[in-house]
Amino acid sequence: MKMIPGGVTAPRGFQASGVHCGVKKGKGDGNQPPKSGRPEVLDQKKDLALIVSEKECAAAAMYTLNRVKAAPLYVTMDHLENGVAQGIIANSGNANACCPMSHENAEEMCALAAAATGLKAADFVVASTGVIGQTLNIAAIARGVPAAAAALSRSGSGDAANAIMTTDTVKKELAVTVAIGGQKVTIGAIAKGSGMIHPNMGTMLCFLTTDCAITQEMLQDALHDIVPRTFNRVTVDGDTSTNDMCVILANGMAENPLIEWKDDNYTVFFKALSEICTELARSIAADGEGASRLVTCTVMDARSEESAERLAKAVVGSSLVKAAMFGADANWGRVLCAMGYSKAPFRPEFVDVTFRSVVGEVTVCRQGAGLDFDEDQAKSILSQDEVVIEVDLHEGEHQATCWGCDLTYEYVKINGDYRT
């Protein structure tokens, strides 16, 4: 397995693009007059992404578990009912959720993409991210789609990754190659996610492409097993979005032996897909709104993977734990407290807690009781870019890892006026 550049266009047969069309009302889009009579500086943030395959693809998807789902998810579900697709169109700046004309506008985005690429509207997955409750500026998208189609290229993955960002501060783009049946198979991805993120996905979009020859059934099974162990184990702020989507398209152009059973070739593909989704999940947690560090919690020696996951989610989701991580405060009592209300079974008197990072580790709790430790050393450990909270239950053989971030003043600033 080898990480390579190229994102969603690294696999054979895929092109992508990202352009600015002015979806979000604001500077430079003609929707608001200049302030104080002075010209506004144009905001040329890319906000429309297009991904297209040369050939029809087997397609699979996972969606938010929020009962309130945005219109693009329902349209995508309809379009993927036959298990195939050939392109993805996505916008940032507006979620197209809980607003007038949402379903019609999601369908229109697919129709616009189809007209510009010579495909069918039903060939497209559609996704949106941004402000909820405001009608989508479909006129801006109509102006932008021809430019996005004209810009499609084998080097367009970075532009597409930028176009789906909202409050993200870094672009999330990866690709990996593996050998399957003597052929090089590539999986590429772009993702976005920074806030409104809680287990069961969050305001996150992930678009995966691969040239692997694999049936839709095997593709769906792989995604169904991997998403709960990666994206569904990320939390930033306790909010699960209406727009989450993880989609994978496989065009078969690697010409490897078709994967139609869970054989050795499936295992290789599964491990590569799991690796890329794990790295993206970590990058989403690390880029949490206002975050200054990635917080990883691994619960080990648990009675079951389910209980380990529930405990780890409770720890990284705790506002008090997150605040302690921001302050580099080794307040391990908050870890046990979060575990205690998780409703997962465990024996508190067996629990060990260790904080670790690249500069070292310190055990702060053993068998449910506090230990004397060097506060300065602990602060140094907790001041690094990634902090690991390691919890040993000493009760079984299972473990799970979840990812979150610290809670900072900047998070409140970002979300205090997000809509306006």
Automatic annotation (TrEMBL):
The keyword Flavoprotein does not apply. The active site is at residue 203. Pathway: Amino-acid biosynthesis; L-arginine biosynthesis; N(2)-acetyl-L-ornithine from L-glutamate: step 1/4; Amino-acid biosynthesis; L-arginine biosynthesis; L-ornithine and N-acetyl-L-glutamate from L-glutamate and N(2)-acetyl-L-ornithine (cyclic): step 1/1. It is found in: Cytoplasm. GO terms for cellular component: cytoplasm. Substrate binds at residues 166, 192, 203, 289, 415, 420. GO terms for biological process: L-arginine biosynthetic process; ornithine biosynthetic process. The record marks 129-130 as: Involved in the stabilization of negative charge on the oxyanion by the formation of the oxyanion hole. Keywords: Acyltransferase, Amino-acid biosynthesis, Arginine biosynthesis, Autocatalytic cleavage, Cytoplasm, Multifunctional enzyme, Transferase. Its EC number is 2.3.1.35, 2.3.1.1. The record marks 202-203 as: Cleavage. Heterotetramer of two alpha and two beta chains. This is Arginine biosynthesis bifunctional protein ArgJ. It comes from Intestinimonas massiliensis.
